[in-house]
Amino acid sequence: MLRIRLRRGGKRNQPSYRVVVADKPAPRDGRFIENLGHYNPLTDPVTLEVNKDRVEHWMSLGAQPTETVHRLLYKHGIIETEPPKRVTKPTRAEREAAEAALAAENQDDDGAAEADTPSAEVTNEEETPEDSSS
């Protein structure tokens, strides 16, 4: 299976990438079939220069872009199909909001059930004062 993916180059802490067509099992910086362009994330705005005709050619032959390349090509208007959404774990705030909503639903359900039956209040009358003798 062919993939359109990024091949890293550049110095340490100064990445630059080439957009290449490679076999899926080939190493990230290893053997590739064709160089389609380059991508530099350090420039402002980022630089992406690819040969659109060759990208369309390889995609017509069945090459699949990786998630990152798909996102880049879509952002720069080379591909019309929107990249797939990433499946991520919910954040702590999202988990707490979901738990609060679930608790509120449970309270509403309990409140409706308690309205039908008389409620019994439980009180603790056996409180013992603490002895302050030393």
Largest beta sheet: strand ordering: 4-3-2-1-5
Q: In the CATH hierarchy, what is the architecture of the domain at 2-75 at level 2?
A: 2-Layer Sandwich
| CATH fourth-tier homologous superfamily of the domain at 2-75 | Ribosomal protein S16
Helix coverage percent: 25-40%
What is the overall shape? Answer: elongated
**Number of DSSP-assigned strands:** 5
Rg from C-alpha positions? Answer: 30 Å
Q: Approximately what portion of the residues adopt beta-strand conformation?
A: 15-25%
Largest sheet: 5 strands, mixed
Distance separating the two termini? 82 Å
Topology order in helix (H) and strand (E) letters: EEEEHEHH
CATH topology of the domain at 2-75: S16 Ribosomal Protein, Chain: A
SS content category: alpha+beta
Written account of the structure:
The protein is α+β, with helices and mostly antiparallel strands and 134 residues long. It has a domain at 2-75: S16 Ribosomal Protein, Chain: A (2-Layer Sandwich), CATH 3.30.1320.10. Helices cover 32% and strands 25% of the residues. The chain has three helices and five strands; from the N terminus they run ββββαβαα. It has helices spanning 52-60, 67-75, 92-116; strands at 2-11, 14-23, 34-40, 47-50, 64-65. Strands 4-3-2-1-5 form a five-stranded mixed beta sheet. A hairpin with a 2-residue loop joins β1 and β2. The radius of gyration is 30 Å and the shape is elongated. 13% of the residues are buried. The mean pLDDT is 83.
